Amino acid sequence: MRKTGKYIYCVTDAGNKPDFTSGSIGKTPSQVFGIHYNSIAAVVSDSPVVSYSLKSENYLAHQRVVEEAMAKNLTALPVRFCTIARDEASVRTILEKRYDEFHENLSAMKGKLELGLKVFWNDEVAYPEILRENDNIKKMRDRIVSQPQENTYFERIEIGKLVEIALQEKRQREEEEILSMFHHLYLDHRTNRIIGDRMIVNVAFLVDEKQEKLVDEAVEKLAKANDGRLKLSYVGPIAPYNFIEVTIDVTELGLN
User: Fold this and answer.
1) pLDDT tens for each residue of 157-201
2) CA end-to-end span of the chain, whole Å?
3) What is the dihedral of CA 110, 184, 122, 126, to 10 degrees?
4) Which of 84, 163, 198, 246 is the S-S candidate for 79 at Cβ 3.0 to 4.6 Å?
């Protein structure tokens, strides 16, 4: 028979004790609730002690609970995905032993939220601009464009290398320009991994909740100024995953 433990979604302040309606992680529905200690709480649900795969339905279930905590005006410190304690007593012990740490981090994150921005070149934007901005590459391309590919193999390889260098320089230049539009609005930021040739920016902003509308307006301004040239993906507010994540050692979870 599989053991049942307490799946921990986040640590919050305990100013109120809301009822949660989000579905729990896992195939068997379980009530999400808070385990309180002093002025903090862990948001948990019953769960078998298993290793959940990081597939979308599991991760989204985890994320939805954290988002609901935020929606109920709780400051939330997200806990690492698939953190399961033995029982309620183990969770309360963790809160007690790490109370000062959690309380300090909750105070630091109170009234703050994370906003995520990804910016991409639209199709057929970057390469034509590189040719316009790099006369040497354009001349090399023009010399071979009408020749059979088999006769210009090495020239095409050389052009490809030059285009790649130019693309990296262009991305860095535009990333700096875009981020400069927000530097007066965020408290901190994290640049994340660039994926694919079209992505320019992949950034998370930590902002004061009072600045959210101003960030929204800056994103809208960026989109309007680059209509047809850039594609934007803007998400939030979400918990500050990029700035703090609670990790709990297996020895603390009481499973050994």
Assistant:
1) 777 788 788 788 889 998 999 999 999 999 999 999 999 889 999
2) 17
3) -140
4) 246
- 56, β-bridge pairs: none
Residue of 204, 156, 193 whose CA lies nearest to 171: 193
Alpha-carbon distance 232 to 230, whole Å?
7
Q: Output the pTM of the full model.
A: 0.82
* Spatial separation of the C-alpha atoms in residues 155 and 159, rounded to whole Å: 6
Token pair of 71 as six digits: 């929606």
Task: Enter the CATH code of domain 114-238.
Answer: 3.30.70
Range(s) for CATH 3.30.70 in the chain? 114-238
Nearest partner of 44 among 2, 105, 95, judged by Cα: 95
Give the model confidence (pLDDT) of 129-146 as tens digits.
Answer: 777 877 777 776 777 676
